[in-house]
Specification:
The chain is an alpha/beta fold. It contains ten helices and eight strands. Strands 1-2-4-3-5-8-6-7 form an eight-stranded mixed sheet, with helices on both faces. The longest helix is centred in the middle third of the chain and has 21 residues. It is globular, with a radius of gyration of 18 Å. The two termini are 30 Å apart.
């Protein structure tokens, strides 16, 4: 995220019931058709394996994965290799920011109605001061593992699925803005929804849901309701991550967040546990944002929520 300016089986049945209530303004809603198989459980071990790779990449490249640095390109090549092997069609989009070349990675899953595109994305770059494992290898790894789950399931959704990893978010949403600005008006209108995941494994976590689009918001809320986990509306990062350019272009957006530098309140501790008065992520934008800076439970729950939303919203 960029710097600001100044018991599953039981839950599944509940989620299914709550999801019947999901409706709203997400663009391109199609008539109900044959239901897809339920979203899979995303293995948190798989997500953490990607985090370990991102940590190793940062360690081998000056301690970071920042825009224009070799650690960023190595991170992108790692993700691209996984997606290519899984049957995605990938492309690298190049741009320039702060005198350095940057890259977005876009991956399309074959099939589905390209007139109705569901996108899920995350920023892949870190700040220069650390490896950026919660911010935002956590979102990048979970989106990657969800994409790989799509391949393992040979998912054939009604809508077209596209995944993205953005560059230079930490410099001001540069990569995602470049992508949105490069789209024609028609291409923008064909994006039914963009789901953003920026910091989803904070060590003192909260469970925050974007409230930008009612249908997307309700989809995530349905999942967490099924787990018995209360959520709050996301406000700390509002407009500060890669959903903002999409929203400005009229695309319905949503996403998840587990908190950054704000302190967790006593009321939030009552909801979620953790430590009152301590930041959700005390290592935000610091060198200590390593693989030790991840809450496995938050990472697991949010990774599963991503898959649930991708499956539900692409039906």
């Amino acid at each position: 995220m960029k710097l600001s300016v100044p018991g599953r089986a039981a839950a599944t049945a509940v989620v299914a019931a709550v999801s019947l209530l999901v409706g709203g303004s997400m663009a391109g809603a199609a008539p109900a058709g044959p239901a897809l198989a339920a979203a899979p459980d995303i293995p948190v071990a798989g997500v953490k394996a990607h985090l370990a790779q991102f940590q190793s990449i940062a360690t081998a490249n000056g301690g970071n994965r920042a825009h224009g640095r070799p650690g960023y390109r190595a991170s992108l090549d790692y993700v691209k290799g996984k997606l290519d092997a899984a049957g995605f069609t990938t492309r690298i989009q190049q741009f320039t920011a702060s005198g350095r070349v940057g890259y977005n990675l876009i991956a399309d899953w074959p099939g589905g109605d390209t007139g109705q595109v569901v996108m899920a994305g995350s920023h892949l770059d870190s700040v220069s001061s650390g490896p950026g494992i919660n911010d935002n290898a956590s979102g990048s790894a979970a989106v990657l593992e969800t994409a790989l789950a799509v391949s393992r399931a040979n998912l054939q959704p009604t809508k077209h699925l596209r995944f993205a990893w953005w560059g230079a978010e930490e410099l001001g949403l540069v990569g995602s803005r470049y992508y949105v600005n490069s789209l024609s008006t028609g291409d923008r209108s064909r994006i039914s929804g963009y789901l953003n995941f920026d910091m989803i494994g904070s060590p003192n976590p909260g469970y925050f849901v974007y409230d930008d689009d009612p249908a997307i918001e309700k989809t995530f809320q349905a999942y967490f309701t099924g787990l018995g986990v209360p959520t709050e509306i996301e406000t700390e990062g509002d407009g500060r991550s890669d959903h903002a350019p999409f929203k400005s272009a009229g695309v319905p957006v949503g996403g998840l967040f587990t908190g950054a530098s704000r302190a967790k309140t006593a009321a939030q501790v009552t909801k979620w546990g953790g430590t009152a008065g301590l930041a959700f992520d005390r290592c935000y934008h610091s060198s200590c944002d390593t693989t030790a800076n991840i809450n496995d439970t938050a990472l697991d729950r949010n990774s599963d929520a991503i898959a649930y939303a991708v499956w539900e919203l692409s039906e």
